[in-house]
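Lecture notes, structural biology module. Today: joint structure prediction for complexes of two components.
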Amino acid sequence: MSQNRSPQRVLLVDQEQDWLAFGRTALAEAGYRVETAESAAKALARIQTQEFDLILLDMKEAERDTTTIGKIVASQVEKRYHVVIVSPTDLTPAKMRTAFKLGAYDCVDKQYDQAGLCQLVREQFAEIDRPAPCIPGGIES
Amino acid sequence: MSRNKSVILIVEDEQDWRTLLSENLDSYDVTFAENYAKAINVIKASSFDAIILDLRLEDRDDENFQGMELLALLREKEKEKDWNTNVIIVSAYGTPQQVREGFKIHCLFDYILKQKFDKREYREIVRQAISNRRPKGS
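The predicted structure, tokenised, for the full assembly:
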């Protein structure tokens, strides 16, 4: 799905300004091009004017604005990015199901340290370059 | 079995749950498999419009979730161009990682937790699973 572009472009979507600042710094130091958005609506606006390879989306925002999330995930294939939902609380089967039914490419634990966040992003980019076995289901319109 | 009706396979070892999962599905032809071995045989012999699968079946002694193995078999059948069956897991035992594996690797259509089972939601999921199949041959 994604070709190797250098540097790889990440969009962080989260209501928590502190986490956005942390994530921007951590990933920029690791060599990624990072943009941030405080809401799904702002993320959608960015996606329409900028290209990204990976979007990390906080679960709370995803659950808060499912309509906008639906628009974002619907463009995954066309715009060649992956949406990964990150959960700030312990993942449960129900939360995992919610993420995939929203149309996310993946759902993982949110990371709060540089090493963990960089590893999360590295792993997602490693997956992006392999053929995806399943197309995200998404919300039935 | 009428081919005018969509055909559903329910793989579930508990009688009460087989009854519950087949209630109000009168517009479909329903086949049951009560254990892993029968499920394998039925899937190899027939085609279905949707499969509803319990994650843990009781006819194996090991601790592995047999349902995930069955999902892997279904994933192989998915590669056949005339197989376009959506699979719904109904389980009380799944872990977040099994849910993730189900959707990401096995192309699961949905995952229903028995603890939060809702009849109306279930019927709607089944309806969507049948109506949202990819075209055969694609």
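Point to remember: Chain A touches chain B at residues 91-97, 100-101, 106-107, 133-135, 137, 140 (CB under 8 Å).
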